[in-house]
Specification:
alpha+beta; 4-stranded antiparallel beta sheet
Length: 76
């Protein structure tokens, strides 16, 4: 399974994601249910850090954020 697929699963599946916005080194993901975001899964698939604020989950992935966001959007 590729990293984008794993990230989607770690964020609770494509049905839990409202919006994906890439930044320089992170993905800002608006989710319907933040409790579905699994930090262990996200870390296992390469996240350097995870910050949850309300319905937004920031996943630090490094300089590949734009590429991952594009791949994740295609899979949704």
């Amino acid at each position: 399974m590729e990293q984008a697929e794993q990230l989607l699963l770690g964020l609770g599946g494509s049905g839990n994601i409202c919006e994906i916005e890439p930044c320089t080194t992170c993905l800002r993901v608006a989710v319907k249910d933040p409790l579905k975001a699994d930090e262990e899964v996200l870390t296992a698939c390469g996240a350097f850090g995870i910050v949850k604020i309300g319905h937004t989950v920031q996943v630090v992935v490094g300089p590949v954020a734009e590429e991952l966001a594009a791949s994740m959007e295609k899979l949704r």
